[in-house]
Amino acid sequence: DSGVTQTPKHLITATGQRVTLRCSPRSGDLSVYWYQQSLDQGLQFLIQYYNGEERAKGNILERFSAQQFPDLHSELNLSSLELGDSALYFCASSVFSGGYSGANVLTFGAGSRLTVL
Amino acid sequence: GDSVTQMEGPVTLSEEACLTINCTYTATGYPSLFWYVQYPGEGLQLLLKATKADDKGSNKGFEATYRKETTSFHLEKGSVQVSDSAVYFCALLNSGGSNYKLTFGKGTLLTVNP
């Protein structure tokens, strides 16, 4: 158990629908990162939050949004789902937002597998 | 932008064989380099890391040396076990301003047969 909790583990939904993925970071970690893993694109960074504020944005579609709450858990909202959104979505957490990069080790959750039919 | 290129898989080895998975990177500045491992049905786990040139990361018999001159961070193990079967990801972490994000390679699937 990495200490990063993601729910749900599996989710099957239809095109056009909206889903929410939840992540609880490891105790003491203030940063949360979302990644998408698909067969064709590999692991793609989506977005990072630090202590409630957005810090970095990657290849996140406009149909997707995220937020980090005061208790530091984060949610990734995926709307108007398309078949191509089927993927494994990982959350990771770390202590830092800035500073010496070598110390900023990310701990990953087990992922949420989204299937869009 | 930053990028990581690692050897295409899959790699299939017999138990006790030697393993090398090549990884090269392109990045500005002085990134930190990582190998992550993903066992079937699980999330990514940090295997080892190196934070500056000539550093050697090691864990569970795996080693990788940060070579700035060749921009490489190849993963090696002298004798693999069946339990090493997994997907291995090379990654770099670059501190662009105040933002931190890992850039991953596409992953290499390793299968070790008894």
Structural features, described:
The complex is a heterodimer of chains A (117) and B (114). By secondary structure, chain A is an all-beta fold. Chain A has no helices and eleven strands. Chain A has strands spanning 5-7, 10-13, 19-24, 31-38, 42-50, 53-57, 64-68, 74-78, 87-94, 107-108, 112-116. In chain A, strands 2, 4, 5, 6, 9, 10 and 11 form a seven-stranded mixed β-sheet that branches. A four-stranded antiparallel β-sheet of chain A has the order 1-3-8-7, with no helix packed on it. Chain A is globular and about 40 Å long. The mean pLDDT of chain A is 91. Chain B has strands spanning 3-6, 11-14, 19-21, 23-26, 32-38, 44-50, 56-59, 62-65, 75-77, 86-96, 99-104, 108-113. Chain B has 114 residues and is mainly beta. Chain B is globular, with a radius of gyration of 14 Å. In chain B, strands 2, 5, 6, 10, 11 and 12 form a six-stranded mixed β-sheet that branches. Chains A and B meet through strand 4, strand 5, strand 9 and strand 10 of A and strand 5, strand 6, strand 10 and strand 11 of B.
Concise description?
With 117 residues, chain A is mostly beta strands. Chain A has strands at 5-7, 10-13, 19-24, 31-38, 42-50, 53-57, 64-68, 74-78, 87-94, 107-108, 112-116.
Key terms for this structure?
heterodimer, A: mainly beta, four-stranded antiparallel sheet, B: 114 residues, mainly beta, six-stranded mixed sheet, 55% strand
Topology diagram in text:
The complex is a heterodimer of chains A (117) and B (114).
Chain A: E1 5-7, E2 10-13, E3 19-24, E4 31-38, E5 42-50, E6 53-57, E7 64-68, E8 74-78, E9 87-94, E10 107-108, E11 112-116
Parallel strand pairs in A: 2-11
Antiparallel strand pairs in A: 1-3, 3-8, 4-5, 4-9, 5-6, 7-8, 9-10, 9-11
Chain B: E1 3-6, E2 11-14, E3 19-21, E4 23-26, E5 32-38, E6 44-50, E7 56-59, E8 62-65, E9 75-77, E10 86-96, E11 99-104, E12 108-113
Radius of gyration of chain A: 14 Å
Number of helical elements of chain A? 0
- The proportion of residues in beta strands of chain A is over 45%
H/E element string of chain B? EEEEEEEEEEEE
Arithmetic mean pLDDT of chain B: 91
* First-to-last CA distance of chain A: 30 Å
User: Using only CA atoms, what is the Rg of chain B?
Assistant: 14 Å
Q: What oligomerization state is this entry in?
A: heterodimer
Most residues in contact: chain pair: A-B, 29 and 28 residues
The largest pleated sheet of chain A is described as:
7 strands, mixed
Q: Specify the biggest β-sheet of chain B.
A: 6 strands, mixed
Helical residues, percent of chain B: under 10%
What structural category arises from helix and sheet content of chain B? mainly beta
The number of strands of chain A is 11
- Helix content range of the residues of chain A, please? under 10%
Low-confidence parts of chain B lasting 5 or more residues at pLDDT below 50? none
Characterize the overall form of chain A. Answer: globular
Structural class of chain A: mainly beta
Beta-strand segment tally of chain B: 12
Low-confidence stretches of chain A: none
Annotation field: number of helices of chain B: 0
